[in-house]
Amino acid sequence: MTGSGERLLGELRMIANEGARMDELACALSQAIASVLPHDAARLVGTSPAARSIPSSFSFWHGYDADFGRALLCDYYAGHDPGPPGDLARRPLPVALLGVGDERRHRRFRSLMSRHGAGSVMRVVLKDARGIWGMLELLRGQGARPFCGDDAERVTRLTPRLIEFLRAYVTGGRRMPPGPPPAPGVIIVGADNVIRSATPQANHWRGRPEHRSQCLRWTAESFTIGLAMQTRIHALDPHTAEPLVIGPPPVYGRWFATQGQPLGDSGDVAIVIQAATPRQMLPSFCDWYGITPRERQIIAHLRDAMPPKQIARALELSVHTVNDHLKAVFRKTGACGRDELLAVLTG
């Protein structure tokens, strides 16, 4: 990576810690990456090793036409994507140039690119020893130089910094929930993948200022429809991914769970948005904050209202060791003590 790219991505991490809006971060992110690898549009998708799903709970889009973005997400959820992140993650170099193969999915993607003025698309899965943290996709328009193998090697060198950025985005904001959680909300998606209706509570969940930009509105809509598609697939084959997404506070202001439920045999789907339970959020929470397996055990017992002495007996540790682990958790999460940590986990 060039010195300027290293510096810009480092600055981006600081911007994420300051709680900038998602659209502002998307623009800054694209500019930082462009200093290393020129492109016309970029999207960065965030997940965590525990989530095991991409696209996941949040993403940054810059320069994408709304119709093209919707089509990309629709193809992904329908199983037509030519570069599934799970497949890329198993490659020594987890990068793909999309639409350049002879397989049916690549031919379909080339047609999609042509209709929307895209000339070349490159995707890299962001992974480290702990697992997958997301993916980066870069686009160049028709007439621009197509991405090549050298570009693929250059973009993979951005991976550590991009993972840092994602973690800063999740962990850099307010940890304490802003009051009691809103009531669960419900969105109804018809069999034709059109959003039919939403309860006032669902609109309340989706009504944060961060979601008012045009880009964020259509990506949220596409995510909802995609989850409905995933719900129907799971209903037919329970071995497929469960239609459940657990997301961090920057999206809706607190840890949330979004789940799809089929409504009989009509093809209609109910998408339920609600506050995540401590059990649901703990795996991803530990990923983002770098919590060790032993620290996670202690947090789980603490969440169940066990005092340190009981935790020590349950885990066959000394009370001193348990307290040392708790201090490490407080340092990593920025919590002032057990009460604040528990408020995050149960809020």
How would a crystallographer describe the biggest sheet?
5 strands, antiparallel
Total number of strands: 10
Mean pLDDT: 88
Instruction: Classify the helix fraction into a percent range.
Output: 40-55%
Uncertain regions spanning at least 5 consecutive residues: none
CATH architecture call of the largest domain = 2-Layer Sandwich
C-alpha Rg (nearest Å): 21 Å
Succession of helices and strands: HHEEHHEHEEHHEEHHEHEEHHHHH
Question: What is the class of the largest domain in the CATH system?
Answer: Alpha Beta
Measured between the Cα atoms of the first and last residue, the distance is 41 Å
CATH superfamily of the largest domain: Transcription factor LuxR-like, autoinducer-binding domain
What is the CATH fold-level name of the largest domain? Beta-Lactamase
Strand order of the largest sheet: 2-1-5-4-3
